[in-house]
Write a sequence for this structure.
């Protein structure tokens, strides 16, 4: 949960940014996202981490302004990257201590985006840098990359469809670094077999984890009890 | 033949020793269940310690399915002792009691005696496993409920959907039956050579411990013989709990990662059973009964 | 008369000893066949070969006119045996043991039949007790009940009186008589004690170190005309000289120990006694023995150079 909070602060900072264009853009995005007071969404979650073999699971996502967020699995056991998936664009936009810098343009998923770099003004911030790729025409955040001091870099990629007018994505891909997973065979009571050692490339790939959430429906501004988030 | 098998079963189940095995399994399982019921979260936290720094694991991890897996993992190493207790005593015990000569001067061929005895020890082995399954699986399911099965293997973790688990247990227990029958066959084979029960029981366990150590150690010299050791194949029941994934790393419901390994292990174990039993019969047919 | 057991040239060699050497004998229907020999003479090995527990190195065995190695099952169906100790399942009761062995002989006796069998050996009162609690004699009787449960034609008893008290020994003797006379069974009974055999056997075989010493009808072997008298005097050498001069010279036998041996008909003993007195030989003892006992003595004293 720690990371959610961190990312949450990143975007608070963003809004206090002094870079004029960049700040204005972020404010526009915020205004758009502010339409949503709460939502309840259904979706499917796919965990794609090299050392995890898991089936696709159904999830329910709840959000309530300003920053309440909950992902529930429809029964069963869920594996989520710590904090990461909870980040949603609505909670990005609150206020404060940030410097926003325009950093040119880039193409994300075939769409031209404006790149905004946001630097925290608070030295104690866990986040070192967040880069946002904003589709200016539609005021949608297409991609956000945050570099943290201790937990590496997170990347969130979003694609929009039916709910683009609310700034809500149809699909979120959350990429994160994983540590190497290894338990001693003595602990798992397995015998060594002649496994081939992993190649360097595989090792590298093993370190990237992805969680994809595909939203099938949103119920927006229908009111949600606070108890849901407990 | 049925008469012989019935008589052998009657003898097995009239002996107090037989029930030691059932009592031991009951005690062990109840103990583990009690421990996990009281302090299971600590155990789970310990297991998840490493992976928990990257992932948040949500749900009833410590459910009946996982507990049964943990117990099978622990118990299937020790069950051979309980099987040896009976199987390695089948011939040697009778020799020790002096009943072997009475038995063999009855109008049945030695081969049918041996087959009946082996079949009886196999039935005992299977009943022991049924009892194990009842306690470890069904009682655990009842006490701890069922849910998805989150399994931590040495190199990766596997998440099996709740409705994709039970059939794997059927497979695993069938495989375990084959593995334990191999142990019974080994004990049975060794029991031909002795006139007291302790020798073959200890010998059976020693062979299994010795070969298990060879199977466990990752030393290149041993790796050459490993595929031929039955102990290497005895734990292949675990393969039932490994699932195949698609290109995009999505688990395929109802699939098994290493079907060939299960099949291969089953064949190796089956060959061992055939060798041990036919070896025992061959030796026994020629044996002078001096006890 | 049908031969029940016919053994020819039977030999069994273990790694470093030959337990049975070229043994041949025949047991006929209705015989009580006494099989005598010291402990370790090869009796048990022979009996085990008859029961297919041990495979002969050489020779042939026929039972009921059929070769044992080809007709094992048919033959064993008609054989009942107690081999050495009467071992049964100690954790089972008498009646349970009896039921198991009856079923192994292809019978499905009722509890009543089993009880009758136990009654015959005097164990009806302990039918439900585990054998663990039984005395040696009771186990022996249970062993016999087990051997007889399937009403076999041939009964093989290996040292059936071992460990029994005098009453137990007498009971076994009576049982063997009963089996032979009343039920017309053929009985092969082994023992290392002559007096056990001589009272019941119709034929006798004595073996030593795996070889046959003598075999024959008990009536012949216990022949009164072949009685041997052992004389012990104050001076055996002087007595020998005197006897060599007397009419008993032809009856004198080579000596094995210090004692003098004279072979004669049992009826001649009073005459011998009278002559000894007349010759003023200072007699210490005069012991008549029949020839079988003589054989047996040779065996038990470890001498067998002497022949008859």
């Amino acid at each position: 949960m720690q990371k959610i909070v961190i990312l949450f602060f990143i975007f608070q900072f963003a809004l206090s940014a002094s870079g004029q264009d960049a700040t204005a853009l972020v404010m526009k995005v915020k205004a758009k996202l502010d339409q949503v007071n709460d939502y309840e969404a259904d979706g499917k979650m796919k965990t794609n981490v090299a050392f995890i073999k898991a089936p696709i699971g159904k999830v329910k996502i709840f959000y309530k302004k300003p920053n309440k967020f909950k992902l529930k699995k429809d029964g069963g056991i869920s594996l989520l990257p710590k904090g990461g998936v909870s980040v949603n664009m609505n909670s990005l936009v609150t206020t404060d201590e940030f410097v926003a810098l325009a950093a040119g343009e880039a193409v994300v998923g075939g769409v031209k985006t404006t790149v905004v770099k946001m630097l925290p003004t608070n030295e104690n911030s866990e986040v070192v840098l967040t880069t946002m790729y904003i589709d200016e025409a539609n005021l949608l955040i297409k991609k956000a990359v945050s570099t943290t001091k201790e937990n590496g870099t997170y990347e969130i990629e979003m694609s929009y469809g039916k709910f683009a007018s609310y700034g809500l994505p149809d699909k979120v891909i959350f990429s994160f670094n994983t540590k190497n997973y290894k338990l001693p065979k003595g602990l798992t009571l397995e015998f060594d077999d002649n496994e081939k050692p992993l190649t360097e490339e595989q090792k590298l790939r093993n370190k990237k984890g992805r969680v994809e959430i595909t939203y099938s429906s949103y119920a927006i501004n229908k009111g949600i009890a606070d108890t849901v988030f407990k | 033949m049925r008469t012989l098998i019935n008589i052998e079963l009657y003898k097995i189940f009239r002996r107090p020793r037989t029930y030691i095995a059932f009592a031991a399994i009951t005690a062990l399982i109840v103990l583990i269940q009690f421990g996990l019921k009281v302090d299971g979260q600590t155990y789970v936290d310990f297991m998840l310690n490493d992976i928990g720094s990257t992932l948040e694991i949500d749900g009833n991890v410590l459910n009946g399915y996982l507990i049964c897996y943990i117990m099978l993992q622990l118990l299937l190493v020790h069950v051979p002792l309980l099987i040896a207790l009976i199987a390695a005593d089948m011939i040697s015990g009778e020799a020790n009691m002096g009943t072997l000569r009475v038995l063999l001067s009855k109008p049945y061929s030695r081969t049918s005696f041996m087959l009946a005895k082996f079949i009886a020890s196999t039935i005992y082995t299977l009943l022991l496993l049924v009892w194990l399954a009842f306690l470890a699986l069904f009682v655990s399911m009842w006490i701890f409920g069922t849910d998805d099965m989150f399994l931590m293997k040495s190199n990766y973790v596997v998440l099996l959907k709740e409705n994709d688990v039970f059939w794997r247990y059927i497979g695993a227990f069938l495989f375990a039956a084959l593995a334990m029958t191999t142990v019974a066959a080994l004990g049975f084979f060794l029991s031909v050579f002795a006139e007291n029960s302790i020798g073959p029981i200890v010998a059976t366990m020693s062979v299994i411990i010795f070969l298990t150590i060879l199977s466990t150690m990752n030393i290149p010299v041993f790796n050459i013989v490993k595929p031929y050791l039955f102990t290497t194949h005895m734990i292949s029941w675990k393969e039932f709990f490994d699932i195949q994934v698609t290109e995009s790393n999505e688990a395929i419901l109802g699939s098994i990662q290493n079907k060939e390994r299960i099949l291969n292990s089953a064949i190796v174990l089956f060959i061992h059973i055939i060798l041990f039993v036919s070896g025992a019969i061959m030796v026994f047919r020629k044996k002078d009964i001096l006890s | 008369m049908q031969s029940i057991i016919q053994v020819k040239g039977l030999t069994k060699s273990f790694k470093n000893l030959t337990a049975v050497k070229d043994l041949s004998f025949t047991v006929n229907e209705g015989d009580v066949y006494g099989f005598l020999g010291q402990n370790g003479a090869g009796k048990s090995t022979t009996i085990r070969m008859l029961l297919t527990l041990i495979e002969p190195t050489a020779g042939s065995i026929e039972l009921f006119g059929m070769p044992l190695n080809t007709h094992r099952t048919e033959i064993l169906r008609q054989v009942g045996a107690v081999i050495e100790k009467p071992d049964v399942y100690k954790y089972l009761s008498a009646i349970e043991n009896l039921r198991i062995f009856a079923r192994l002989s292809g019978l499905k006796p009722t509890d009543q039949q089993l009880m009758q069998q136990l009654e015959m050996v005097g164990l009806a009162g302990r039918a439900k007790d585990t054998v663990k609690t039984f005395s040696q004699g009771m186990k022996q009787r249970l062993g016999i009940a087990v051997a007889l449960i399937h009403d076999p034609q041939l009964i093989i008893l290996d040292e059936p009186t071992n460990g029994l008290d005098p009453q137990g020994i007498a009971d076994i003797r009576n049982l063997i008589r009963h089996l032979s006379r009343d039920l017309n069974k053929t009985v092969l009974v082994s023992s290392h004690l002559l007096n056990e055999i001589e009272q019941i056997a119709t034929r006798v075989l004595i073996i030593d170190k795996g070889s046959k010493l003598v075999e024959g009808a008990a009536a012949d072997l216990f022949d009164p005309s072949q009685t041997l008298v052992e004389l012990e005097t104050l001076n055996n050498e002087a007595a020998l000289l005197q006897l060599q001069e007397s009419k008993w010279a032809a009856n004198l036998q080579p000596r094995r120990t210090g004692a003098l041996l004279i072979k004669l008909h049992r009826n001649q003993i009073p005459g011998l006694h009278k002559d000894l007195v007349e010759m003023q030989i200072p007699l210490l003892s005069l012991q008549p023995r029949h020839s079988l006992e003589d054989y047996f003595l040779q065996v038990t004293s470890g001498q067998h150079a002497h022949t008859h």
In short: Residues 2-286 of chain B form one domain.
